[in-house]
């Protein structure tokens, strides 16, 4: 794909038409590309467990996170409702010396490791599968494609593409680096792994590793490496079920067009129905994959079944 950097509107329209999955799974579909992840693909993924070693791919959920308040996104606020002090003072009202602790958390659903649901992004007022955005997501939430519908299905064969290690220097890509189809293919070849129908693809750029070393800075919303808009065809053609990265926005930032904001999201979510994950912690998994030479594994990453939500925090688990 040749990008005219002065014409994001035209590029988005062209890609949306070329890579649309509207109607592919019927007019009432709520899963999008998760339809590619069937029972056979889950059996294939489960068979990849050899050593039994597991990795959490989630960042921490706490007040020291990356959020800076953009569009009212804040870091989680964790508050104790009952504590050990209350128990020691015996003021909780329990009998026979019993005490306990309880807590509550308040947070935007996309403030740390998360999935973007199908109701998260619209294209010219249209939601996934051509639905009217105004009738799909209201103040009551996503009435049709709420992320709760995906909760049973996000488990299968995970594939790590450590583009930062293969293409970058010192295991990291610089901010503004646009990952192309050629980079993805070269990384898969270097890892000796194939990417295809129903896979859950994880792309490591090294951006999170740098944020940990240097501080959060502009990690949440600022410049970052990420997928090029030109990968829309690859995302569609490979028929992957989902893709996630270690960056805030999945696609390269600044975006590749003038006066544009997240154009690949506008194609991938409402038109392609692609499940997108962001802010995943892939570093420990990547180190293990490099050590044993195996870059595919069993991956489970269910969203919380929050009724009507357009995104969800997750704790993805990779097992090798």
TrEMBL record:
Stored Gene3D superfamilies: Putative cyclase
Lineage, top ranks: Bacteria, Bacillati, Actinomycetota, Actinomycetes, Kitasatosporales
Protein name according to UniProt: Kynurenine formamidase
InterPro entries: KFase/CYL, KFase_sf
Pfam families documented for this protein: Cyclase (PF04199)
SUPFAM superfamilies: Putative cyclase (SSF102198)
Domain of life assignment: Bacteria
